[in-house]
Amino acid sequence: MKCFTLSDRRRVKSCSLDVHPTEKALVVQYEVEATIVGELGDPVVGERKECQKMIRLKSLNAHTDTSSLARKVVEECRLIHPSKLREVEQLLFYLQNRKHSNDSQEKKRVSPRDFAPYAGVELDEEASINSIDEYVELLYEDVQEKIRGATLIFHLARNPDNLEELMQNEMALGALARVLREDWKQSVDLATTITHVFFCFSSFSQFHGLVTHFKIGALCMNIIEHELKRFDLWQEELQKKKKTGDKSSENQNLKKEHEKSFRKYQSLLSKQEQLLKVALCLLLNLAEDTHTELKMRNKNIVHMLVKILDREDEELLLVVVSFLKKLSIFMENKNDMAETFAVEKLARLVPCEHEDLLSTTLRLLLNLSFDTLLRSQMVQAGLVPKLSSLLADEGQRQLSMCILYHISVDDRFKSMFADTDCIPQLMKMVFDSAEEKMDVELISLCINLAANKSNAQVICQGNGLKMLMKRAVKLKDVLVMKMIRNLSQHNGPTKSLFLDHVGDLAAQISEEEAEEFVIECLGTLANLTIADLDWALVLKEYNLVSYLKDRLKPGCSAEDDLILEVVIMIGTVSMDDSCAAMLAKSGIIPALIELLNAQQKDDEFVCQIIYVFYQMVFNKTTRDVIVKDTQAPAYLIDLMHDNNAEIRKVCENTLDIIAEYDEEWGKKIQTEKFRWYNGQWLEMVENRLMDEAGEPFLYGEDGESFIGNADIMERPDLFYSADGIISADGAISPEFYTDFQNGELGPTGYMSSVSEHFVPADRPVSAYGFRPDEQFFYNYSTASR
Prior knowledge:
Elements: E1 7-19, E2 25-37, E3 43-56, H1 66-76, H2 85-97, H3 132-138, H4 143-157, H5 163-168, H6 170-183, H7 188-202, H8 208-213, H9 216-247, H10 252-286, H11 290-298, H12 301-308, H13 314-327, H14 331-339, H15 342-347, H16 355-368, H17 372-380, H18 383-389, H19 397-408, H20 411-414, H21 422-432, H22 440-449, H23 453-459, H24 464-475, H25 478-487, H26 493-496, H27 502-507, H28 515-527, H29 535-541, H30 544-552, H31 560-573, H32 577-585, H33 588-598, H34 603-616, H35 620-629, H36 632-638, H37 645-661, H38 663-691, H39 735-741, H40 750-758
Antiparallel strand pairs: 1-2, 2-3
Helix pairs in contact: 1-2, 3-4, 3-6, 4-7, 6-7, 7-10, 9-10, 9-12, 10-13, 12-13, 13-16, 16-19, 19-22, 21-22, 22-25, 24-25, 25-28, 28-31, 31-34, 33-34, 34-37, 37-38
GO molecular function, one term: kinesin binding
Organism: Dicentrarchus labrax
GO biological process, one term: cilium organization
């Protein structure tokens, strides 16, 4: 029988190059043609396979010589033909200049190749997919053989091309799952290696069902929980030996024993952290399914992760923080992080030298910063100065600024920024942007900070305000003007700086300018309650009276926001008597009353219009117009008992001034106050009298009350009139005060009971029997009919 000698020939064909979409790497795609030929050179079997190789370029940066690096890549990679040198150089140049945005980085799952090799997977032999059955048999031997068999299978699983074939071998995967479930406590190396195998499968979504089928996720949760308990025991034991060594400082043997225990602890800790890292990565991949993630939360995954934040291994911390970041988008998980004080532990990682860990930590903090309680924890943990220092780092600036913005939303924390270098850095960024459009996060943070008086003083230092005004007016920048408006609200030296810019602001108030920009300019001017400012001159020079009046006309096309700012502006300038008179002559007061009718449901409008009246009643000319020529006092009386406390307050103050200067309106106002404070009591008197048995004279034959629907205030005969206290016309007799002060009203019962509870000996009651600021009291037991 003739024997044939077979040989294997492999050739690489059709090689193409491209760049990796997210990493600094070249991707080489090629086709391998494998042909088995016989003894005579005839092909017996032929097969083609498409392959891919990634060339990572970790040293590539902005200063790298791409020509030299291209030659090195071509020399070391045999798959790339020398003729492609020019193409490689162009691809490297593209990678060198490609911008990576923190916000647009593609979210990627942790890859098996992201792990550095550890001692448990180092072997001298090379694994082969054809020997898989032999590796499975090793899983039935002792622990060391099990580790060897699992390691060989892991080497196969590291290559994604082998995963499909391994998945078909259910016996191998079943054996691995069984060994992990039964023997993981016996050997950390064995548990780590087998977990690595399943982790390789978990890196691809199509294999998640396989990992779930063997319940590897639940097993990993148990492993993590157990390892955390072991860590606590190690810590306790180490502390005991340390204390013993400290007490017996002269005993060298105890010191050596402690040092030996510490070295052992470090070795165990290193292996444990490797196991925790791969187990958490596997769970992180499986958490892609929200149902699976919920199961993890129910097993306290958040508490476990927060506990691991105390570790020092940066790679492990990166996995933990990444996991927490993914979990933080759900409220329940966020609340768990608040309960476990995760922010306090995260604060120690800011800043850190590990760039990926720092970036991921900031992203997690950004997610958490939407919660008020967690923002408070961030401030308490000292994150404001730390984040402020990161503004100088271009790579982390955007994230730091967003977190600081969220913190600045809370008025309690705004003042803390004044003690850091945050504001000077922000101002430098604003001025460096020249005529370019600023990042919305930058100007938003500045607007919030400008609302605090201490921050405003820092912002306006030097030429700060002047530079901001210059940019706002030149570029018609609404957001910068909004920041200036916030600066203008603070009394003291900051507000005085605006005297130099009143003309610039007033010049912007015209129909030609954009409405949004005019609103901010008007708001800024309205804040300038400065005694030295001649508002009459400003109104005349820039013809503002006609502009203000036109905005108040019915049917005006202006937005409500602009009209409201016009009303506020009128209130500010009305503090000047000459301005108030000028506005009154122009007919603005009737326009305000008409606007009050139209906007009576809007509390802000109502309050600001009433404030204008309040300012104007101080001046005789405008007061006469308001009192004699308009129905403004009647509107104020109607609003005196409004539900809004601020409206009530301004109304009462305005009416008090009107009552002081006009006797007729004073009586009306006094009567209305009497009605309001005593109406409830009088209503109760009427109801009680009607309910009393044996008094049919209150009702007619048909049962209808003789009072009918008349106003009870017009029936003084219903008032208590014991022994001449109240006369028939409802007025209190002069003898009342004398009898009251002499204590002669006791037998009547009613007033004596009231005076005992409300009226001090040195203060007489008011004309109505009660002071308006005192609560009504009625004593059923002592009152007499």
